[in-house]
Design goal:
By secondary structure, the chain is α/β, with parallel strands linked by helices. About 30% of the residues lie in helices and about 30% in strands. It has two domains: about 1-70 and about 105-225, Rossmann fold (3-Layer(aba) Sandwich), CATH 3.40.50; about 70-100, no CATH class. The protein has a six-stranded mixed sheet with strand order 2-3-1-6-7-8, sandwiched between helices. A hairpin with a 5-residue loop joins strand 2 (about 40-50) and strand 3 (about 55-65). The two termini are about 35 Å apart.
């Protein structure tokens, strides 16, 4: 059996946890309410499939559902709106730092020994695509992973207030993300398509990783033979 570690990362409320639960056939008792992931959740599943060579593999997957929660700074007390000595009035403001992930200090531990990365964003919230660049930069590029070890899921959630439904075939506009495979998904419309895309990506990642390991081992052996 082959083992693989796959990270699922992206902005908060993009649908990462729902996708992970579906893939791992896990259930939650959240009552339909949104609860941000605290740090990371690790789910385990087994996937059987074929490599590009036609060889059948059974893969034991660690699926890391990584939090996208933002860092909050506060409370911050802003001024005194009253001259009453006994009952002063204060305005308390919580400031959100949009460019800082709450659990960013945990990223080095999360990314260690990773074989592949799934980027998830909600295309009905345009600002999330910009956030994807930061996740891609750290979890893929800075770790020396290749674009074929990354999959982008443009995940459509049920339309609600504050959401603008996008075209199901819209493409990522960022040039930095142009080299990775992008797939539009919806657990409500085509749930099995999500599983099929993930399994196909997983087999590609495992096959490529095994090929690289084989080449590296061959290089070491060839180097030893030179002495």
């Amino acid at each position: 059996m082959v083992k693989a570690k796959i990270l699922v990362v992206g902005p908060c409320e993009s649908g990462k946890t729902c996708i992970c639960n579906y893939l791992a056939e896990a259930t939650e008792s959240s009552g339909g309410e949104y609860h941000p992931t605290q740090g990371v959740r690790i789910l385990e599943l087994e996937v059987e499939g074929e490599e590009e060579t036609g060889r059948t593999l059974l893969v034991e997957v660690e699926l890391w559902d990584c939090s996208g929660s933002k860092q909050w700074v506060g409370p911050v007390v802003m001024g005194n709106a009253s001259t009453d000595t006994f009952y002063p009035l204060y305005t308390v403001v919580y400031v959100q730092q949009c460019n800082v992930c709450r659990f960013e200090r945990c990223w080095p531990a999360m990314v260690k020994d990773t074989h592949g990365v799934v980027l998830v964003h909600n295309p009905d919230q345009p600002q999330q695509e910009k956030e994807l660049e930061r996740w891609y930069s750290y979890f893929v590029k800075q770790q020396g992973l290749q674009d074929d070890q990354c999959l982008a899921l443009s995940h459509h959630k049920p339309v609600s207030a504050g959401y603008t439904e996008t075209s199901p075939d819209s493409q990522l506009s960022s040039e930095r993300l142009s080299g990775i495979r992008q797939v539009h998904t919806s657990l409500e419309e085509e749930p099995e398509a999500v599983r099929d895309e993930f399994n196909s990506f997983l087999m590609s990642v495992v096959g490529s990783w095994a090929d690289r390991q084989h080449r590296e081992e061959g290089s070491i052996i060839d180097g030893d033979n030179e002495f």
